[in-house]
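Hey, resending since the last one bounced:
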Amino acid sequence: MKGLQRQIFYFSLGLSFFIMLTFILLSSPVFYKYEFSKGDVFLKQRTHVLANYIEGFFSKYIVMIEYLSKHPKVIKAYKLSEKETLVKRIVSPYKISLQTFASIRIKQT
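The structure tokens again:
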């Protein structure tokens, strides 16, 4: 009688292990794709947040540079001797210090 009980126990233990292993193997690709898509969504959101932050940070400088690049006195400023006072007068409406303005590199064409 003990031999039969032991066989039934081992058979049910093996069967439950097989069912559990089958369930894990069949469900793991689904969970993998789900977690992968969550990671992809997270990275897209993070990229969007950073792009908005960078755009917001530099937008005031872009407007100022576009304005100054069209200003005839600024275009010819490299020839003038009073460059600093000229830049102060032109930049003063923007309330930007010369130190901030000097940190912006403008390509000359």
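The mean pLDDT is 77.

Sorry for the duplicate.
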